[in-house]
Amino acid sequence: MNGWLGSILHVDLTDGTHSVEHPAAATYQAWIGGKGLAGHYLYPHATRSWDAPGMPLIFMTGPLVGTSAPTSGRMCIMSRSPLTGTIGDASVGGSLGIELKQAGFDGIVISGSSQRPCGIEITPGSVLIREASALSGMGTGELHIRLKDKGAVATAGPAAESGVLFANIVVDGAHCAGRNGLGLLFSAKNLKYLTIKGSGRVPVHDPDGLRQAREDIFRLIAASPVLLGELGIAQFGTGALYDLMNNRRMMPTANFRQTVFAPAPSMNAAAYKRRYMPKRSGCRGCHILCKKVARDGTLIPEFETMSHFSALLLNEDIDVVTKANSICNNLGMDTISAAATLACYAEMEGERLSGERILSLLDAIGHGHGIGRELGQGSFRYAAAKGEPGVSISVKRQELPAYDPRGAYGMALGYATSTRGGCHLRAYPISHEILRKPVATDRFSFAGKARIIKIAEDCNAVVDSLTACKFVFFGASLEEYAKAFTAVTGVETTTQELMRAGERIYYNERIMNALNGFTDADDDLPPRFFEDEGSSGNDMRIAPLDRKEFLRTRARYYRVRGLDQKGMPVSEKAAQLGLQWTA
Amino acid sequence: MKQLVGKYARKLVDAGLAEDGAPVVGGLDDELVWNRRDARCSELAKVFSGLNINALLFSLPAEPYRSMIDYLASMATVTDGVIRPTDTETRTILHDLPVVEAFDAGEIMAALERRKCAVLPGHGVVTWGMVSPEQAFVFYSSVCFACFVKFMSDYLADRKSGRVSRRQRRVMDTVMQHIDLLPSEPPALMRAPFLSERAIYHAVSQAGRMTVEYGLVDSFFGNVSLRCGDTLYISQTTSSLDELDGCIDPCPLDGSSCAGITASSELTAHREIVQRTEMNAILHGHPKFSVILSMDCEKTDCAFRGQCHIRCPESRFIEDIPIVPGEVGTGPHGLCHTLPPAMEGRRGVIVYGHGLFTVGREDFNEAFAGLLAIERLCQETYLRMVS
């Protein structure tokens, strides 16, 4: 076997044992790796409660991880989401994936629950479970400093210990597996950290073929203005999108009540560059280096964090944004959900939060103090408990990121159909609706968007399974990555064959969600987007979404995806994809 | 979708890439629609059913592309069934062009499983889109351009070495019947000074539109910019030069905003040029004969043969116009490193296998005249060399 190592590590924290499974080659080929293979391992447990001891927490790499395939230093972490109840997953960078491969494993499936706080330490030929009570309450930054000599580090912070439903897992102190509250799985298993140090090599079938694929991919990355352009994310980080979103009048402002933020030009990525003079950083093995780090080591916020901790909260202080980002990272909680929950709170209370108040509320959430305990349940539960669920701008209880769907109709559909709740990354239609890649589409139209979203979801499922970085696909495509896949694994494949695997992976997620009762009623947007106009101006109207047209497009999506009218799986389609579904 | 498939069928004809009534363009959301009825739609529908795509374009190319493509395809079928042009467009996007001998859904699908296009000798060219029919249109256009450049480049090389076959000559005779000499007079474009931002946008749009009308681009692609004060107004990435309204990004030269992140891939090269020189208007097209001659090099024993597009060490010129290596964008071999210094003191520069950049001091009149004159020079030179 090349690319894949043929070994999955199973760790049971209840009895402190571990074992190694050697899946069949056909299993790897059907599910690729990463998100696909993680979904395969999650399926038998999909209906368990997230905090049941039998619910696995899965770390899975793809066949490209640990090779020289561009941007392949990522991996997938998956379980059932405490925040949404859907499947929960995150693609995460840093060095964890590569170290895992170098330690000899494609993935780790952690089940059970330890009696006492513990850590898992993996080195070649050794899996140790350590007592970790002394690390309880410690922030992810300090944990990383303490543990980094042991290799790559994944930790949960105080937010997980406090029961925050949007708690993250933090890799290498800087890379967050966010959105779905996977950090809580650490807490449920009494797991404080996971460290991995490897020393092996990942076998590659055809090094020369891989070199050619690399050249093709590098050429396309270099040709992409969004990636390596002088205004792109290599230079400015993902914050490079900030100006564009405001100019397109789709920057979520004041809890999505407006879509333009007047102070944005002074809080953009260029302002961060002037203020902090950051250096470039990123995942291991990536030359784009989209992460920015200030000279003193402070992480510069990503785009979503920049936007939500400024516009969404009407905060005009750039230092508050940076501090909020640091607090969230150290406490181990998702910045999008944290900011959006505060915005919901501010609207309900009729309060404009000062910078100081924002920071103190974040601290209260992360430590489970006072009002923070309620807010730590996320905006939907907070708002619903007060009788105003519509003030929570979320899908399937997960707060929406920093693209107002009234300014990009494909994004509206993509938010609704995402299998992990309100998420921009499942289909990322911003790529064509705003960034013009591979070509521009009409952002104010639902025409053609049903199939576009379905295809993009399948494509990104493949990307998260290989595993590669989705940003690269602003330039490269699966055509080039299919070549890399074949060169690495020796398994002949094509763009379309990978896409069929992507369809299987995504449909499997729909099945798991359906098993947990999710229907078309959950594939929907908050009423605000259908009722209220955004901030129109400059000859550009940000109209409310046409609900009938949205529902017609969603119905088209269901037909294209092979679901029934209620968004439920269909046994014939499932069988066609090699899956099982019984209504 | 119906509107989009019709639009791109028309654009193929307008660009001279297909004859009226030839293109069949299908678009699929939850239902499949075609721009027109055609007996071949049922076979093409099978291709849709087997692929995760949302658009399919099939057409017999117009002359002279048809003869050249058929010739290249027939030559490919006696080897490995793949046409391998070496222009930048192919290197970057298409990689290579598989040939399919029969109009059969299974065979077409097998090719499109891996690549963005398939060439069917005697039948036409088929391409797909995953996002929009526009993608299929772009790929089709690139196939025509790549095959034109490859046929004419190969012919020139074979002519020099005395290896032109009868068949090649017959194809060239057909090609010659369809090549019109470029006009010698450029159009009158808007003149500086531009007193409002609206006037700037109009000037950029007009320059783009006229570049297309004069056939100085590979169908509709290239880029255009104009510096006014501290802002560079530049066409957006993947924009069609004949449809630039709403597709021009104002980029502050002081780097105070990233709003131009959607600007052309060549923003850095454009900015460097306006900052290094006194020129403020830049036109970039893909005129075919400039591209063909840029690839005409007789130094067969060069250590960098096969890497000319990124490593050519020679100082090469077509009259006063330098030819430089460089790939699209800002990578280590990006043309942003080679083009701006070469442009100093020049009216234009050709980037190897890619296209031509020209400049003007205040508005697009000088840049357009340069683009036209240089391509005309290359056209005349080429025709003289093969006559």
Provide a descriptive summary of the structure in words.
The complex is a heterodimer of chains A (583) and B (387). Chain A starts with 7 loop residues before the first strand and ends in a 7-residue tail after the last helix. Chain A has a six-stranded mixed beta sheet. A six-stranded mixed beta sheet of chain A has the order 8-7-12-9-10-11. A two-stranded antiparallel ribbon of chain A has the order 13-14. The longest helix of chain A has 21 residues. Chain A has a domain of 189 residues: Aldehyde ferredoxin oxidoreductase, N-terminal domain (Aldehyde Ferredoxin Oxidoreductase,  A, domain 1, 4-Layer Sandwich). The model of chain A has no long low-confidence stretch (mean pLDDT 96). Chain A has 24 helices and 16 strands. The radius of gyration of chain A is 22 Å and the shape is globular. Chain A has 583 residues and is α+β, with helices and mostly antiparallel strands. In chain A, helix 2 runs parallel beside helix 21 and helix 17 packs across helix 19. In chain A, a hairpin with a 3-residue loop joins strand 10 and strand 11. Chain B has 387 residues and is α+β, with helices and mostly antiparallel strands. Chain B has two domains: 176 residues, Class II aldolase/adducin N-terminal domain (L-fuculose-1-phosphate Aldolase); 190 residues, 3-Layer(aba) Sandwich (L-fuculose-1-phosphate Aldolase). Helix content of chain B is 42%, strand content 17%. In chain B, a hairpin with a 3-residue loop joins strand 14 and strand 15. The N and C termini of chain B lie far apart (47 Å). The mean pLDDT of chain B is 94. At the A-B interface, helix 7, helix 9, helix 19, helix 21 and helix 23 of A face helix 6 and helix 9 of B.
